[in-house]
Amino acid sequence: MGDLNAKVGREYDGFQGTIGKFGIGVRNDNRRRLLELCGASGLSITNTYFNHKLEHKTTWVSPNGLVQNLIDYVIVNQKWKKSILDTRTFRGCRRVPSDHKLVISKIRIKIQANQEKRRTIKFDVDNLRNERVKQQYEVKVGGKFAALIGMENMDMDSEESWAILSSDTKDVATEVLGYKRINSKPWFSDEAKVLSEEQQRLRVQVDDKQDLEKKQQLKRRRNRKLRELSDRMKHDQNMFWKERATKVAVAMEIGESRAMFAAVRFLRNASQEKVWRGVHGMLDEDGNLVTDEMEKRNLFARYFERLLNVDTTRYWDKKKKKSIADLNEALEVQEEDISAKR
Predict the structure, then answer these.
(1) What is the pLDDT of residues 316-334, one digit of tens each?
(2) What sections of 62-189 are H helices per DSSP?
């Protein structure tokens, strides 16, 4: 809000979103500077968006009362433009001697509480497949149950007993099983991790070197590592998705519905993970899954070769014969008409 001595005028073409269609007066030189500033900063001049009487739009009156202008503006960010309900001036609020009118805006803002999303922590129950971990977990949980059974003579209700049982079980699971780690790139192998660390180390050396020749040598070494890392990541992705597809097929054959649906859910939700766009497979002519890049390119080449290389000689020969037959028929009809007229 402020006295900017800029007359935006009535024309708003080319500045939609910055000014409305209810401006007044003739524009001056400061108009261009103000509109460029608002357009570059994503601001809106709210005085020009509401249709009021002229006396409720003008913000400045000359000492003789003959000249009125709109030069005081309430400017807001465009994302808050819908929160401005009205902007207008009031003539009667002149307790302070001034040639400017009071400008008031009505604002409606919906304030929402910042609700923190609580992250659900899951225990890594897959570790129970390891017999050693499973026995360790059973021994420690059994010890906690024995201690709880020994407390039966104490005066405790069911809620207190459940709280102790739940807390002890969680403590044992945290100690023995641990938490399930969320890996956004499950296909990232140890070899790729080593290559990534090496190229990071080379990048630091490139930044620290002052000798241009040595810096160029380090850059070439780092570029080679980056190419190796890219190839390794592509290979790891292809192998990862092949393994997932194989798990689904094997689970279907042996009748393990739980493992099958778990693998299918993972594949269905794969788009929500941070995976590359080129990892999804294709089916070839025999219905087999193809994930290798070169095989997919060859598959596309064969498809378009069949699509575009069609033998069209029969079609054009047939069309040509039909055109000649139509022409002969038309000539015969024309000769019959001529003979009839004679």
Answers:
(1) 555 555 555 665 666 666 6
(2) 131-149, 158-176
Q: Any idea where the domains of the chain sit in the sequence? A: 2-107, 125-176, 190-279
- This prediction has a pTM of 0.36
End-to-end CA distance of the chain: 97
Give the C-alpha distances (Å, rounded to integers) separating 153 from 147, 148, 161, 267.
Answer: 12, 10, 12, 52
CB within 8 Å of 280: residues ≥ 6 apart: 241
Mean of per-residue pLDDT scores for the chain: 76
Which tokens sit at 283?
A: 């089916």
Distance CA 59, CA 73 (A): 9
b/e per residue 27-60 (b: at least 16 CB within 10 A): beeebeebbeebbeeebbbbbbbbeeeeeebbbb
Sort strands 102-107 and 68-69 into parallel, antiparallel or unpaired: unpaired
> What type of residue is 79?
K
pLDDT in tens, 18-74: 888 888 877 777 877 888 888 888 899 998 899 988 888 888 888 887 888 888 889
Q: How far is CA 74 from CA 86, 103, 187, in A?
A: 10, 8, 54
In angstroms, the CA 226 to CA 220 distance is 10
Torsion angles phi and psi, residue 179, rounded to 5: -95, 150
Q: What are phi and psi of 292, to 5 degrees?
A: -70, 140
And the tokens for 217? 């040598």
pLDDT band at 150 (very low <50, low <70, confident <90, very high): low
Q: pLDDT digits over 70-121, tens only?
A: 888 899 998 888 889 999 988 776 666 778 888 889 998 877 766 666 667 7
| Tokens read off for 137 | 């977990």
d(CA 33, CA 18): 13
C-alpha–C-alpha distance, residues 226 and 129, integer Å: 38
Structure tokens at 38: 């608002």
The DSSP call for residue 22 is: -
